[in-house]
Design brief:
With 95 residues, this protein is low in regular secondary structure. The chain has one helix and two strands, in the order ββα. Strands 1-2 form a two-stranded antiparallel ribbon. Strand 1 and strand 2 form a beta hairpin. The longest helix has 8 residues.
């Protein structure tokens, strides 16, 4: 089962999502980083595919050739906690 990143509803179409395809429920683009199996907020450029080009707008349609629609049951990557200014300074000067 595949799921839309925006409305979280189950999608019936699961193969070869084209660049211009939209969710039938909410109209959000489907060929986006947030729907991709390789999307990971903790990874470099937020993508685990090392050969993919950098995409700045993760929720808009793109031309990535490595896009694979994520399974609805696949766990989402945990959000990355940003360090406070104090923590950043301590990490910088830590021995």
């Amino acid at each position: 089962m595949k799921r839309c990143f925006s409305c979280k509803k189950i999608l019936k179409r699961v193969e070869n999502v084209g660049r211009r395809e939209c969710c039938p429920f909410c109209g959000a683009d489907l060929h986006v980083c947030l729907n991709c199996l390789h999307y990971d907020p903790a990874a470099c450029n937020q993508c685990r595919e090392t050969q993919a080009e950098r995409v700045l707008d993760k929720n808009r349609s793109n031309f990535c050739e490595y896009f694979v629609l994520r399974d609805a049951d696949a766990p989402e990557a945990p959000p990355v906690r940003k360090l406070s200014a104090k923590e950043q300074l301590e990490a910088l000067f830590k021995k």
